[in-house]
Amino acid sequence: MSDTQIIADREAELYRAMLAFDYNALDAILSDEVSYIHSTAVVETKSEYFAGMRRGLYEYGAIDIRSANTRMFDSVAMTTGVMDMLVGANGSAKGTIHLQHVLVWRLEAGTWRLLLRQATRMPA
């Protein structure tokens, strides 16, 4: 399997874990040093992101990748692309947001883990 396919699989695992609120899977996917930058400009560490999920700040309904391009750099990979995310908070109605996103993956002890996630809202 190519490195870019491994990264694509890891990204798919990330979104499955987010949708399922699978903290064990997320813990394995996210680097302990991750910076999770939301489209609202909120920047969270791994523990802050998990705490926000537990408080109901991020209630995901669907995550659909419209495009993705991954580039490899030794022990780092970078994916850029466009996604649609159905999301709400604290039981509110979910709405779809369109995002340009950047994911930076780092090879840590033989496993690709997410080091940076940054999303920017796009017009509908």
Chain-wise SSE layout:
Elements: H1 3-20, H2 23-29, E1 30-37, E2 43-44, H3 46-54, E3 59-73, E4 76-88, E5 95-108, E6 111-122
Parallel strand pairs: 1-6
Antiparallel strand pairs: 1-2, 3-4, 4-5, 5-6
Helix pairs in contact: 1-2
Short description:
With 124 residues, the chain is of the alpha+beta class. 27% of the residues lie in helices and 52% in strands. A hairpin with a 6-residue loop joins strand 4 (76-88) and strand 5.
Estimate the strand proportion: over 45%
Written as H for each helix and E for each strand, in order along the chain, the element string is HHEEHEEEE
The helix content, as a percent range, equals 25-40%
Number of distinct helices = 3
Tally of DSSP β-strands? 6
Task: Summarize the main sheet.
Answer: 6 strands, mixed
Average pLDDT works out at 96
Using the coordinates shown, work out and report the CATH topology. Answer: Nuclear Transport Factor 2, Chain: A
Structural class: alpha+beta
Q: Which CATH class?
A: Alpha Beta
Describe this structure in words.
By secondary structure, the chain is α+β, with helices and mostly antiparallel strands. It has one domain (3-122): Nuclear Transport Factor 2, Chain: A. The protein is 27% helix and 52% strand. It has helices spanning 3-20, 23-29, 46-54, and strands at 30-37, 43-44, 59-73, 76-88, 95-108, 111-122. Strands 2-1-6-5-4-3 form a six-stranded mixed β-sheet. Helix 1 (3-20) runs antiparallel to helix 2 (23-29). The longest helix is centred in the N-terminal third of the chain and has 18 residues, at 3-20. The N and C termini lie far apart (35 Å). The mean pLDDT is 96.
